[in-house]
Write a structure and sequence with these properties.
The protein is of the alpha/beta class. It has helices spanning about 55-60, 105-110, 125-130, 145-155, 170-175, 195-200, 215-225, 235-245, 255-265, and strands spanning about 10, 15-20, 25-30, 35-40, 65-75, 80, 85-90, 95-100, 135-140, 160-165, 185, 205-210, 225-230, 250.
């Protein structure tokens, strides 16, 4: 069983572990062993509203190695954490309606209270809270967001950050702006040739739907120098099977429970 030690990244081609400095460059550590990273998918959505500070705080309390979240940019360039491209706001007539985040200023987007009394967090507020406690995996959900992301990242050099997206152009643009930021590409299909699929973006991580991962896919990703992160993995038996295949990270809605199940295996 491979378990993660917080702060470690794996170089799949050599199965060597590294600590990542803020420049994004791996630093070898002799204290670390082969591991599988537990990444909290939007926090702990089964226990707290997804993509909120409360959910991320809970993920940290459950010893998540990484936090995955979704971001959009407001009209005035503030990066907010939210999955959907729209939020519900109340218009001048008092009627609630769905509006695109990109068409609203930050004050309007951040003002409406969520049902639990909280508000949508900014990416900056999440980075301020996380600090060095976990890696932050930012899924960019909208085009034209790369410059705003790197400006935000620059204010938090102590936070380990990576960017991924289904729109592979976004993480590539982030890397052009800041070559030290690790990037990933998302996929929900099984490519005919993974090598060809990865060749354009040359990502550091390949985020693949867990149901589509097999030994050949992991082997080819590692041969391309990519870590493999499976999403979304909530069943311990499935997690064990993926670990046996050599997957490097598990993105899960239940980071605490999944870690506990894997720790029981390790101590048995």
């Amino acid at each position: 069983m491979r378990l993660h030690i917080p702060g470690a990244l794996v170089c799949p081609a050599t199965a060597t572990h590294f600590c990542m400095d803020r420049a994004g460059l791996p630093q070898s550590s002799t204290l670390m062993t082969l591991n599988t990273e537990i990444i909290a998918h939007r926090g702990v959505p089964r226990e707290a509203r997804e993509n909120t500070l409360a959910s991320f705080r809970l993920a940290l309390s459950q010893a998540a190695d990484g936090i995955e979240l979704d971001v959009h940019s407001t009209q005035d360039g503030v990066i907010v954490v939210h999955h959907d491209p729209v939020v519900r706001v109340v218009d001048a007539m008092g009627v609630p309606r769905a509006c695109a985040i990109v068409e609203l200023n930050a004050a309007t987007v951040l003002d409406p209270a969520l049902p639990d009394g909280g508000r949508l967090p900014t990416l900056e507020s999440v980075l301020e809270m996380v600090q060095s406690q976990a890696a932050v995996y930012v899924e960019a959900k909208a085009t034209g967001i790369a410059e705003g992301l790197v400006a935000c990242f620059d204010r938090y050099p102590q936070v380990r950050i990576a960017v991924h997206s289904f729109d592979h152009r976004i993480p590539v643009m982030v890397r052009r702006l800041r070559s030290n930021i690790p990037i990933g590409v998302l996929s929900s299909s099984y490519p005919i040739s993974l090598t060809s699929f990865l060749s354009g973006a040359r990502p550091d991580a390949y985020w693949q739907s867990a149901e589509l991962i097999d030994a050949d896919l992991v082997r080819e990703a590692h041969a391309c120098g990519c870590r493999v992160i499976a999403w979304t993995v909530n069943d311990p038996d499935h997690a064990r099977a993926l670990i046996a295949l050599g997957v490097d990270g598990l993105c899960t809605d239940i980071p605490g429970a999944l870690r506990a199940a894997l720790m029981r295996d390790e101590s048995a």
